[in-house]
């Protein structure tokens, strides 16, 4: 049987070597890549403000400075206003968490004794309050550590935040030059096609972030007000802040934000836990059926399953930070997939199915998105 010779050209070896080296370089530059991802998301979020100021003949560089200083000022004011109280309440919650869990286990023991005369110590063997508390705290710490561990510690995280703000500001101020330089790397007709997608991609990414921040702020206020009214004023602000921050994460965030409040309410006994549960159910329904359609709308344009996978994948890679910044990137990628592949493909299929009849071009944005809406 004759031997078959496999010929490998020099160009193939060069391509494979280049791909391997590129992967190694990108792995070493993962901190920079994360900073760039954050910068693009920030730039897409604040670009509409700068565009609005530019329509009033404010120079773009000045509009960028005003938009960033205004946003930082508002955020700083909120932190100074509620930060100390919320921090104290969250610290108190952390200290009291083992007590709350033990009270919760005691309640379950009483329920087990009423339903069954068997030894309630069986429940202690199945549920160890200390181990459960350590697991909950440890899991939370792992997510947080994974979020800023890539930046080499707390100082690196602060430096990365300022660097992200600076880079995103530069992106917004000189967006036209940067866009031209990027799309000029591609040949025609891709050069013009990609140039047309910069605006819709930015709108979808920025709209997603702005919508989630606004919805989370409203839910944080609603949660704080509701818990204070139900008789938990000593923890209301801290629990509201936790619910608002976690709500930035789609799907998993609302559940994570409700767990601490329900645990505290259950440990207090009575009907308080039922009312707190009802409060969170009402709040989440308001978010799902009122706030999200009005404030977020179709800015995501991705099927909910893909959004959930983006959240889980981002959390596994970068912790809480990944769960926040990966979904808007997925939304932006979905825009490119829709407008550069799916819509032209659908248009070509309709043209082949009905020769001689001009095909109806589906809208680039809207409720009829072929990717599905979240």
Mean pLDDT: 77
Along the chain, the helix and strand elements come as: HHHHHHHHHHHHH
Rounded to the nearest angstrom, the distance between the terminal CA atoms is 59 Å
Q: What's the count of strands?
A: 0
Instruction: Note the main sheet.
Output: none
| Structural class computed from helices and strand pairing | mainly alpha
Shape: globular
Low-confidence stretches: 365-374
Describe this structure in words.
This protein has helices spanning 10-28, 30-55, 60-115, 121-126, 129-149, 154-173, 175-183, 190-230, 233-246, 252-268, 272-296, 304-318, 320-353. With 374 residues, the protein is mainly α. It contains 13 helices and no strands. Helix 2 crosses helix 6 (154-173), helix 3 (60-115) packs across helix 9 and helix 10 (252-268) packs antiparallel against helix 11 (272-296). The longest helix has 56 residues, at 60-115.
